[in-house]
Amino acid sequence: MNATTISHPSLLAVRRLPRSQRALLGAMVLLALATLVLGVLLGLGTALSRAGLLPMDPEGGYRLLTGHGAAVFFYWLYLGQGALLLALVATETRPQPLLALSWLGWTGLGAVAAGLAFGFVGAASGTPLLYDGTPELARTDPAAALPFYLGYLLLGLGLAAIALTALATALAGKRETGGAEWSAPGFGAVAWAGLLLVSAIAMLAVFTPPALWSAGLAAEPFDHATRWHLLFHNLHYLPLMGTVLVWYVLVRELTGVTSSFGGRFSKLVFSLYLVFVPPTSLYHMFLEPGLAPSIRVLGSILSLFVGVPTVAVFLLLTISLEQHARAQGARGLLGWLKRLPWHEPAMTALGMAVVNLALGGTFAFVLIQEKLAPLLSDTFFVPGYFHLLTVGTVSLTLLGAFTRLAPALAGAGLAARSWLRRLPWLVSPALWVFAFAGVAAGLQGLPRRVMDAGYDAGAPTSWAVLTTILALAGVVMAAGLLAYAATLAATWLRRSLASREVTAMPSAPGGPLVAAWSGPAAVLVLLLAMYVATAVAFELMQALPITAAGAAGH
Amino acid sequence: MSFDLALVVLVASVWLLLALAYALVPALAMPGAALLWGAGGAAFAALAWRIRAAERGAFASRH
User: I want to staple A32 with a disulfide (CB 3.0 to 4.6 A). Which of A22, A80, A251, A275 is the partner?
Assistant: First the structure.
């Protein structure tokens, strides 16, 4: 038997999946969009409630916050990733697009959907535990927390099933192609599935003890916070890894340009995510009072590696795009950017995702400084910066990829393409206002998990102003995301396939090697911005009369 | 050993070594850390074993 090559490196090849498997991916995309809508509405309610624009008792506000965090951070992000992961392995690793063990994929989707239902019953009926499910908040009535914990256990089982479906598919492809190497995105998808599987195991490890406790079968777990940090650490990396892998695939699909450094270098970079995950988890321990100073120093040093794989993929893509564009005649410092296909909705989403990642990454490096983490981790600095990553980077990337995936799965044209192209330009500026207001509020000490931060008129007046700005920016951001999700879902209501919307660019011809400095220069600017932001944060924090440090992890 | 397999073996090795460090170095003690990274290392080792089996099976069927 001769080795078989794979000639359809495109997300669009999901069109050739069997009908039942297209239905599986379509159901995952639609459920993901539904959870995004739910999570955005709950987040909007939380922001309005905090600003006093939506009258609500504090417990109601915490229910909104719990539902918002769980729906968006766990269900939207992971259903979206699951759909793209299965699409990638089916199209990248097999001679003909096909999922292995698709029944397991359906089982996984069913478990995640059941987990969503249980989680929301728990959030609506028991004590609102926020998305980390701290058991001590449920001490008064542990049994009422059982549905919430069962929801997470079902989610963990479902994600494990989806990851195993992906791995089985890739291994089947390996056998079918005579043991040939996977493509770079194919290998990246395998690595992504591996990390998803480990994260699912972590989720089961975190939430099994409190589930047993709430069922009356075990004692209260007192190490929940530490176990949560380990899960949460994986949940930082997993969406970012998926995001840059989707960037890699979209760049190839939208421009025809592949990495100038070759597929093996790309694989090495994707595997770096997995190499750096375990050692960098130490920085989550900075808030532990008994942590040895030497471990704090080690954690600080290791934390510097957090962004290495992401920066490497950014460099790989920008240098490849710039080299190709310059070889084709692009001139000027940023002339190559003008040649990108900005008429494509996925391209604008990807472009804004890169900008948002740079901003979010800058603030993230401020937060993981050993001296600043205890001061800022309980403040609104955290939601301020991480919305840049969860909404501005990961969500926009998933939505952009869905503009390719949804038409191919539904067999219909994309609705309102011009709107979808513009929506990232609406969402991102609103997000920047939200983020900068949140960071400013955090630097002034506004607590992040307090619904009424008025403190009987004793709070700084700036808090009220900034909270109102946060709510108004949240309204615009939510409107953009809801419109995006609804427009994508409407694809399944359309009938005809518009051919121009579902074409992948052919591979771009190779040209002479030319210098490409925009990407490295952007990284230098980013490093400078991180340095300045950290210095400013230190100065501001030292100028404030702060004597107490936070107690919860970020 | 193929490049795919080598990278997955590298990942499994790093995770298992880190699991040992979390288990054996008292200053690094975090509840659940050794178990999680160890389970992850075992998962990637199992994946490496399946990749090797797939590649060897394909090689055997060609010859």
Answer: A80
